[in-house]
Each structure stands twice: as structure tokens, then as C-alpha cells.
Design the sequence.
């Protein structure tokens, strides 16, 4: 028996919007720790890892560790029917082939339930070690979205280079080239407007902009995004979900022929 | 000029 009640239901709506374009169907893993997911896109170039810790739910009951396979497009369709202020409860009985989403309006005058068919999904989990990254950048998530969107109109790939002077985003295409440099700036009024660069080693990696643009669908979840990079490793793009968890994206780099 | 790598070349399955 699984029963998860999330007072801030809009978080779940935003999570689905953040992952459904990258992954069509996925297994959600429920355990006493929390509600999580790890899934790769069909080309195995990008991966999304979601964690919603059990403490973040008003009520969290998960009798045994289970994996429930859902079509994310269909799940997003159902969650779109929840109001932004609604409380969302996810329920699944043991052995059932359906999951129920219940939406309650804040004043309890409207209660809806949507039942969705589950699916059997073969999925492999990648073992991603906890690593110290050579460079990490914290920046406003809106700024990162803007950079990815702007550069996509010029080129298909972006080279992200971190030096002690800042982080440089470079692209080139048929019409020309573009460089955007962001410098460390922590002397701002609001911490969410700061750009913070931590660098042990300079790093320069190239990525497909199409995926980075897809990751920015998570922007409504967090004011700040963290980019972590090491030479010859996938980049990690992390959006924290309050103190409840995170959405992390991993993207394999382009490698010189 | 460059090839797209996949995640399985960096991480093993578990």
C-alpha cells in the first residue's frame, strides 16, 4: 500500500513538466526514503534523477519498496487537472495495475480522483558515484535558461569553459559565433541573483544545446541552478526542490573525433 | 567535429 500526500501539489505538476519531454515512460521508485526516479532519454545521452524525500510529504506511507511504471505524458495530463493550490495524494494498492491521483482544493470544497493505468517498464539504473567535481557554477536558473535559448538560435552545441575569470558559453553556426561570459557576482541584493563559481581545475566541455534546453523546463522549480563539471565526465545540472529534494540532469559530453 | 557520447560509457548499470 502506497499513500503519499503532498500539500504543495504544484510541485508535482512542475516536476512532471520538467521531465516529460526528456523521458516518455519511467518507473517511480517508492521506499521509506522517498519517491524517486532515474530514467534515461531514448538515446541514452541524458538522464534525469528525481528525489522527493518522504519528510517533505504531509503523509507518507509506503509499506514496502515498490516500483511503479507510468507513462509520463499521461501522468502530466492528469496532473494538469489539479489546481495549483490543490493538495495531491498518490495512492496505489499492492498488486494493483492502477494508480490514483486525488486532488483536494484548499477549502476542501472540490475533491477529484483520477485513476491511471500502470505499465510494466524494463529499466536499467545507472550507478552514478558521488564525485567531487572540478568546477561548479551556481547561477540564477532564469539566466541559464536565457543563455541556452539564445545560443540555440545560433548553434547546436555549446562549449562551457570554466576558468578563474568566469564561465564562458560558446557556440557557432552557419551565421556566426557567440560567446557569453558570466563572472562571479555575489554582491547582489538577493542570494538567488548571485553567480558563484567554484573551481579547483579549469574545465571545458561541449554539449548538445537541445538537451540543455530540455533541462531548463525545470526552471519553475528553483530560482538557482547548479552546473557541476569535471573533465571527461557528464555535466550535472541540478534544480533543488525546496529542502525536499531535487531534479538532476546528467548529460554526456560531445567528444572530439 | 565531435561525436556524441552516451552515458553508459561513463557509468555502469547497477
Sequence:
Amino acid at each position: 500500500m502506497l499513500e503519499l500526500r503532498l500539500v504543495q501539489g504544484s510541485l508535482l505538476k512542475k516536476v512532471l513538466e520538467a521531465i516529460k519531454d526528456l523521458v516518455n515512460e519511467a518507473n517511480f521508485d517508492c521506499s521509506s526514503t522517498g519517491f524517486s526516479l532515474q530514467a534515461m532519454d531514448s538515446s541514452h545521452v541524458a538522464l534525469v534523477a528525481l528525489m522527493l524525500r518522504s519528510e517533505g510529504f504531509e503523509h507518507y506511507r509506503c509499506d514496502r519498496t515498490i516500483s511503479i511504471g507510468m507513462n509520463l505524458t499521461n501522468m502530466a495530463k492528469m496532473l494538469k487537472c489539479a489546481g495549483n493550490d490543490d493538495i495531491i495524494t498518490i495512492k496505489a494498492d499492492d498488486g494493483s495495475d492502477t494508480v490514483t491521483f486525488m486532488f483536494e482544493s484548499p477549502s476542501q470544497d472540490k475533491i477529484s480522483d483520477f485513476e491511471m493505468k500502470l505499465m510494466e517498464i524494463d529499466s536499467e539504473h545507472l550507478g552514478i558515484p558521488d564525485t567531487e567535481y572540478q568546477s561548479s557554477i551556481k547561477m540564477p536558473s532564469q539566466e541559464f535558461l536565457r543563455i541556452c535559448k539564445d545560443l540555440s538560435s545560433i548553434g547546436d552545441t555549446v562549449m562551457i569553459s570554466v576558468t578563474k575569470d568566469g564561465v564562458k558559453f560558446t557556440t557557432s553556426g552557419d551565421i556566426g559565433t557567440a560567446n557569453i561570459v558570466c563572472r562571479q557576482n555575489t554582491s547582489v541584493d538577493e542570494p538567488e541573483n548571485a553567480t558563484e563559481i567554484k573551481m579547483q581545475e579549469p574545465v571545458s566541455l561541449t554539449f548538445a544545446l537541445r538537451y540543455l534546453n530540455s533541462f531548463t523546463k525545470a526552471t519553475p522549480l528553483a530560482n538557482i541552478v547548479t552546473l557541476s563539471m569535471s573533465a571527461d565526465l557528464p555535466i550535472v545540472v541540478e534544480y533543488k526542490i525546496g529542502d525536499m529534494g531535487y531534479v538532476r540532469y546528467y548529460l554526456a559530453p560531445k567528444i572530439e573525433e | 567535429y565531435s561525436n556524441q557520447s552516451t552515458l553508459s560509457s561513463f557509468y555502469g548499470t547497477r
Chain A touches chain B at residues 40, 43-47, 124-129, 157, 206, 208, 233-234, 250, 252-257 (CB under 8 Å). The first strand of chain A starts at residue 2 and ends at 6.
